[in-house]
Amino acid sequence: MHNRYALILAGGSGERFWPLSRRATPKQLLRLFGQETLLEAALSRLRGLLPRENILVLTNIEQEAAVRELIAGQLPEENIVSEPAKRDTAAAIALAVGWVAARDPEASMAVLPADHLIQDEVAFTDTLNAAFTVAENSDAVVTLGIKPTWPCPSYGYIERQNAVQIAGYESDIPVFEVIRFREKPDTATAQTFLDAGNFTWNSGMFIWSLKTVIAEFTRHVPALAAFVEEVRTAEDLPALLNEKFCKLEKISIDFALMEKASRVLNIEASFKWDDVGSWISVAGYLDADANENRSNARIFPLHSANNVVYCADEESHVALLGVENLIVVQTGDALLVAHRDNADQIKGLTGGIPEKLL
User: Fold this and answer.
1) Are 286 and 296 in contact (CB under 8 A)?
2) Quick one: CA dihedral 202, 346, 14, 95, positive or negative?
3) With contact defined as beta carbons under 8 Å apart, do 4 and 132 qualify?
4) Whole-number Å distance between alpha carbons of 118 and 43
């Protein structure tokens, strides 16, 4: 346990959740599903699995103050690090690899997004423990895959071969050799993936030993390997980040490393998972009436159906008259009214909205 570390990626912008989500408070800092924010839930899932001092939360300058306030006392202060610029996931993960390497070069680590909804903590713990064991007993990078339930065009897919045996791994959770990563397909292609039966959704959760990931960085992205070493030996990490981070290539970890890695293994998650990508995702967890109007507040619908209503103040009252398939989101200073079919396009609104509302 003491040789295992986790990076929680907590710097997403959450633009699809405007107006509830703002730059300083994106979706991972919102209480969309009860009393805990998604970030707090991500930390809770690691309770008992990793020491607190082995968890790094990576955020950005705009959100750092809110993150520190939210999880004050849960982690050492130096375990919350802020990126000075947005350089995508490869640079963020390289930073974390260097941070862990400075503490334990023999470590293994997991990369976990902060903005996913995972409610079965026992199954999550079992799956993550299995993935750590595989990573520690192989020279592979390990991915957690999600069993597809519908032909989603918004997710990346992982194509895999039959199950393999790993020496030293005794869990009954199967491990699969990955053939290749498949980028977001159209719906028809996604359906062929489901029909084939050997695809999982790419959850964005990765596990590896430090030796393996540094070797892969060195082989495929030498600039990031050099940055890992600079972070590992840095005497003043904030100064190094301010000088070097913004100069790194802006590229995802999938393109930079995962699609090129020498060996990738896949473990299918045994827990239910939702990346909560839009208000439509949130709607699935809200109370519904007989006409599929879903809301967290008090609504009074007449001749209305299939609407989503979310209010920052749950004591609000919203009347719906003769409308269908709308998303209505109300905060103290803004109101969104959108068609359900345009849920993924809400982030496009932010270019025309006053700065004070972003």
Assistant:
1) yes
2) positive
3) yes
4) 12
Query: Quick one: pLDDT at residue 352?
Result: 87
Share of the chain above pLDDT 90, in %: 92
185 contacts: CB under 8 Å, gap ≥ 6: 153, 157, 193
The DSSP bridge pattern shows strands 294-295 and 308-311 to be parallel
DSSP for residue 255: I
Tell me how far apart the alpha carbons of residues 58 and 79 are, in angstroms, rounded to a whole number. 8
The rounded distance, in Å, linking the Cα atoms of 321 and 324 is: 9
C-alpha span between 228 and 272 (Å, rounded)? 34
Please state, as a whole number, how many other Cβ atoms lie within 10 Å of the Cβ of residue 318: 17
**Helix (H/G/I), strand (E/B), else coil: 139:** coil
Could you tell me the domains of the chain?
A: 4-268 (3.90.550.10), 279-357 (no CATH)
H or E segment and range at residue 144:
strand 141-146
Q: What single DSSP character describes residue 114? A: T
C-alpha dihedral over 112, 281, 121, 258, to 10 degrees?
-30
Mean predicted lDDT score pLDDT of the chain? 95
d(CA 258, CA 269): 18
